[in-house]
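Tokenised fold entry reproduced for everyone:
>
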Amino acid sequence: MLSVLAHRTYRHLFAAQVIALIGTGLMTVALGLLAFRIAGASAGTVLGTALAIKMVAYVFVAPVVGGLAGRLPRRTFLVAMDLTRAAVAIALPFIDLVWEVYVLIFVLQSASAAFTPTFQATIPDVLPEERDYTQALSLSRLAYDLESLLSPTLAAGLLTLVTFNWLFFGTVIGLFCSAALVVSVTIPKAPATRPCRGFYEDTTRGMRIYLATPRLRGLLALNLSVAAAGSMVFVNTVVLVKGRWAEQTATSRSHSPASAAALWRRRSCCHACSTGCPTEGSCSRRRECWLQR
């Protein structure tokens, strides 16, 4: 499988894909924490809506761009999508309204949905041999699967050192590196011998082939089942962890020696004032004690 990495163009494109995946994975973690900062206990609703917007963008944007991939200047388009995602990642830490999250997520995921089919459309032209093409697809699938494990682990390690806002800037760096790797290679143009089809045929052909294949329909059902369980983890983890952590922090503070001593002094002072403090006339804390009674 790794033998295809000997091809310089594919090696650079694959590295660009991996780095971009890691960057967007960091941003997914940071997005959950951003939702909690903005919406608090309603962060699950905000994050769930944002992920639904992501799916809508992929369902409607990806087929259109996939159908047009052969007609676009691919390298320029891939770099433009990386820079668009980087611009959104820069803006996300500075927003404080829920609707701004939704708008930026739609722009971000539309760019991602446009990047993926364009990238995949370049592989058969870069690697015309069927064996190499099959290995490249397997390697690309492996990168997607490993990213779902490595990105949260990397984000957790970084969060022990920095605040979550810095994860967005890590995403920006990754996307800039991805754009630079794409610029460093020459991507072949789509062969002119491909049949000329209409816009509707180009944009819906892949979906119709997918749904017409029984094994792929079964795979679709399996993916839906996995996504249904995974969505609960993605949406609710931040709310549960941050909420439980806040409760534990408040409890530990209330039981600390300093808190207990402060509470004892306050109660003693209030008791003295209520029963007639012998130094009431000269007590410097008379007003404070009276307010606390």
Notes: The two ends are 76 Å apart (CA to CA). Residues 261-292 form one domain. The mean pLDDT is 77.
